[in-house]
Amino acid sequence: MSNPAGATPEAASVAIVGGGITGLVCAFRLQSRGVPVTLYEAADRVGGVIQSTREFGFLAECGPNSILDTSPKIRSLIADLDLQARRMDSAPSAENRYLVRGGRPVCLPASPLKFFTTALFSPGAKLRLLREPFIPRAPADLEESVAQFVLRRLGQEWLDYAINPMIAGIYAGDPARLSVKHGFPRLHALEQRYGSLLKGQILGAKERKARGEVSKQEAKKVSFDEGLQVLTDILGTRLGTALKLRSPVTRLERAAAGWRVTAHSGDRETRRLHRAVLLAAPAYRLAEIELAAGDTPGLGPLRDIYYPPVASVVLGFRREDVPHPLDGFGMLVPAVERFSILGTLFSSSLFPNRAPAGRVLLTTYVGGVRAPELALQPEAELVALTLRDLRVILGVHGEPLYRHVQVYPKAIPQYEVGYGRFKALMDEIEAKAPGVFLAGHFRNGISLGDSIIAGHDVAERIASWLQALPAAGA
């Protein structure tokens, strides 16, 4: 790309606002193409909620615990960063998933035969699943909540004991509020295309295979030898001097040669000219940025995207103090079971070297839309309520040898019914402010894998947009 006449190096570069995984991946991909970037991050570190802490031989993940390897774009990122030797796939013995029913963890059936013999669902619920292919599809323009969708196709028991805990595990959300169209677009698409979720799962598998993709149910769970922060630390290091920490952006202003970005570093204000801008910080942070671009709508409405609080409570125990075999990924807790916790990951079973020999590590989540007030309690109370539930469900006794609590007052964006208005706003901003792009978990899906793919895809979009610009003096 040619520099505009007399432009500074920044004027030919891309500004990236937000040093979470989406912004980092986009920066890395653009740099790999020879496009100069400047990444502005308000905090004193990159990675956002991705943070790994090792203490006393325990490795705690303060945010996400793994990446679902669903796409070649995820695998290529790991390879291009030379991280294959540090990559860890989850242990084969950790494939079991548990749901709590009747106050105890019950293993989810892993095959059709086990499904028909499991005590997790009643005979009526099993028969209702066999009826699912014969339920008519909803009108394409109807926006249902996840709860409405599941009740229509599968019934109350499936909502209570499958979907409700799954929503808690993914979104820390409420199926009565989440939009199936926006929160689970593939589920919505399965019904619209095949008329049935069961048919769609079977026929859609062939299409995923042709694209080199894997379903989230079958994808490998990936981390690194010292946790997920390995990935974000390496991406941050690759940026070098292009990374500007403690530099919150406060204003974007349209200029003749692109966009003037105003950022603050301590008491010092900087203004730099960039050809394009990616907005990849959390939506509530973007809402604080002034967008001065004529009739382009502002970013303020993004503050209405709901981010509930979530607390991560990581506890280490002696192996003999946890009677459960911990032979799986973890357990999810349905709301109808009336416990305080949303679910628990069996972290030391999932990946090696998460706990010293003879010890186990459990990561429990509290709060979310189900009980936001619980997440904001003092650390001692969070540990106490977590222990109360773990003692009942898993039979834990004794006191924890290790504890690490992390509270996120604004944790995960909720794609609630009506979320289309936010997506329409983002589309309008991009259309009326050429050179401004938006990507991240508030737009492209909330999983870590979704955010990695979003960073890759927006880098492609930005690179194509830059290449289409007329050369200077043309």
Main beta sheet strand tally, sense and closure: 7 strands, mixed
Helix and strand composition category: alpha/beta
Helix content: 25-40%
Q: Which shape, going by the Cα principal axes? A: globular
Distance between the termini: 13 Å
Count the strands? Answer: 21
Strand content: 15-25%
Unreliable residue stretches? 1-8
Separate helix tally: 16
Question: Strand order of the main beta sheet, please?
Answer: 8-7-17-18-19-16-20
Cα Rg: 23 Å
**Mean pLDDT score:** 92
Structural summary, described in words:
- By secondary structure, this protein is of the alpha/beta class.
- It is 34% helix and 22% strand.
- The chain has helices at residues 21-32, 72-80, 112-117, 123-131, 146-153, 156-170, 180-183, 185-194, 197-211, 229-239, 283-286, 347-350, 372-375, 379-393, 420-432, 448-467, and strands at 14-17, 37-40, 52-55, 58-61, 67-69, 87-89, 97-101, 104-107, 220-224, 243-244, 249-255, 258-265, 268-274, 276-279, 290-292, 310-318, 330-332, 341-345, 359-367, 402-408, 436-438.
- The strands form 5 sheets. A 7-stranded mixed beta sheet has the order 8-7-17-18-19-16-20.
- A hairpin with an 8-residue loop joins strand 17 (330-332) and strand 18 (341-345).
- The protein is globular.
- The two termini are 13 Å apart.
- 45% of the residues are buried.
- Mean pLDDT is 92; it is low at 1-8.
Detail the topology: elements first, then pairings.
Elements: E1 14-17, H1 21-32, E2 37-40, E3 52-55, E4 58-61, E5 67-69, H2 72-80, E6 87-89, E7 97-101, E8 104-107, H3 112-117, H4 123-131, H5 146-153, H6 156-170, H7 180-183, H8 185-194, H9 197-211, E9 220-224, H10 229-239, E10 243-244, E11 249-255, E12 258-265, E13 268-274, E14 276-279, H11 283-286, E15 290-292, E16 310-318, E17 330-332, E18 341-345, H12 347-350, E19 359-367, H13 372-375, H14 379-393, E20 402-408, H15 420-432, E21 436-438, H16 448-467
Parallel strand pairs: 1-2, 1-14, 2-10, 7-17, 11-15, 14-21
Antiparallel strand pairs: 3-4, 5-9, 6-9, 7-8, 11-12, 12-13, 16-19, 16-20, 17-18, 18-19
